[in-house]
Structure formats: C-alpha cells, structure tokens
Amino acid sequence: MASIFTKIINKEIPCYKVAETENCLAFLDINPNAEGHTLCIPKKEIDNLFDLDTELYSELMVFSKKVAKALKKAVPCERIAMSVIGLEVPHAHVHLIPINEMKDITFRNKKTFSESEFINITEKIKACF
Ligand code: 5GP
Fold first, then answer.
1. pLDDT tens-digit profile of 94-118?
2. What's the pLDDT at 76?
C-alpha cells in the first residue's frame, strides 16, 4: 500500500508545500514541534533514509539544506535542527525544525496552527528561497 507521503506526492492528500524538485518534496509537518516544522522527502517511496542510493540520498540532503536556509530566514529561531526518525511513516524523510532550546526537538511539545496560519508560514518560507 502506498505510504501517506506517496499519497501526498500524488495529490491524493493535500499538504502545505514549501518546495519541490523532480525527485524531492518539502511540506509542513501536520503535527509540528514548532512553527515551520518541515518534512523533506524523496518522491521515491523507500522506508529507511539510509537505504536510499547515494545519489538520491545526496540530492535529498542538498535539497534539505536549501529548505533549511529558507526556513531560517522565515522563522525567527536560534537554529534549524535536522532529525531523522521514521517510526510513524515508513517513507524516508528529514525533519527540519526551528529550535531555540533542546525541548523543541523532543517531539513532546506539539504546537497547533489554524489552516490560515499554516498557509501564512508556507508563504513566508517560499518567499525566502
Ligand atoms: P516519524 O515517522 O519521523 O516518526 O514521524 C512522521 C511525521 O510525519 C510526524 O511528525 C507526523 O506529524 C508527520 N505526518 C504524519 N502524517 C502526516 C500527513 O498526512 N501530513 C503531514 N503533513 N505530516 C504528516
């Protein structure tokens, strides 16, 4: 069965898209740790990030770096943290999370945003590329 992220890629499920290339997609996490929490994924459905071939892995990292730079400009924060977990969605992804302190990366302090707030932050990030 297609992963939830493949359904997002195929536009069967909506997302707040931040950036896209031929092989990668970035969109806001629906249950974010912080404003601007973004997921960067390869369009190819592979569960474990470290099973990507080196070329696609490198492409995803370069893509994630570009997204992180835009995110840092868009969201006031100490720095952008990168995290790879994958316990919930079996489709490789990199979390980019604006953080100010260690607790922001723990996945325990979740934030809620309205649809208009999600749209607003998406547009802010897109304007920073
Ligand atoms: P992980 O697999 O790294 O443990 O976590 C998966 C992440 O994907 C979680 O932070 C969760 O909030 C996010 N997520 C799960 N389903 C969806 C979805 O349908 N849309 C979006 N935008 N994010 C999702």
1. 999 999 999 999 999 899 999 999 9
2. 96
Edge-to-edge strand ranges of the sheet holding 94-99: 17-20, 24-28, 38-42, 94-99, 79-83
Ligand 1 pocket test target in 18, 27, 31 with most atoms within 8 Å of CB: 31
CB 31 less than 6 A from any atom of ligand 1: yes
The verdict on the CB of residue 90 being under 6 Å from ligand 1 is no
Residue 20 Ramachandran class (φ > 0 left, ψ -120 to 50 alpha, else beta) = beta
What SS3 state is found at 82?
strand
